Amino acid sequence: MIAQMQDSPSAEARSTLRYREYVPAPALRPHVECLWVVWDAVPRTHRPPDRVVPDGCPELIFHLGGRFSRQRGQRWVRQPAAFLAGTLTRPWLIRAGTRLFTLGIRFRPGAVNRWLDVDMKQAVDREVSLASILGRGRALACLQRLRAAATRGEAIRRAERWLQALALRGPTAGDVAARAAVRAVLASHGGMRMDALARQVGSNPRRLERAFARSLGIRPKLFARIVRLNAALALLAADQRLAAVDWALDAGYFDQAHLARDFRVVAGRRARRGGEADGQLARNFTAPKRLLNLLSGA
Question: Which terminus of the chain has fewer CB atoms gathered within 10 Å of its CB, N or C?
Fold first, then answer.
């Protein structure tokens, strides 16, 4: 039974944030990895930041309580109440607001344009407000309906119904090629050469780059790098005792310098500190089971 939103503070007085994922309805599963909620029954004025590592999955975020802030340079900037977080190529450092209740819809790589008319190139490493995509009235109506839900489970069901009510856009030839290439990159854990990838999906490198720009906003080579990094993270998190060189080789790295460079650029930290805390929320995003499901396409 799903707990009510109005949870008694005394029941969870010693808790910090709680996180739960929901399997999407069957019609959504080809396009949506999961829906999730994060909440805390206790208001808190000081929360530690979370480091969100790129995984290739854009997300629709609805801050139904206080908004998160993201660090940009030396400033913390509040996020919109409802927005699309485009494909990330570098980590985000985020911090929850005082009253935490946020709902997310995590799309599979390359799936956003089946639902939303958005330029994914312009969404890379950015928050794109839902109002700028759907119009202010429709975005506000969606946000108000989610906030009016009596329970977290009901908020999830309303988010599902809202997404299903959007007109599913027909795929272009480029969309089909990009999705096929995404599946191949995930299956190879980011180890495929780009020329072989293009041949496998019946394209050529230039056309495939254009397809990726439309569907993901980034080049296929960078997507493969992100996937390779997450494959390495999955191995590290699954068994902390593995020596760095062992899991680096398992993940397809040729040398330690190659691995270290990807950690610095994509994960924003040193490879030898791969087990460092990323924050209570972010640890759910890099949980081994979640990453291995992503790589398998489950």
Answer: N
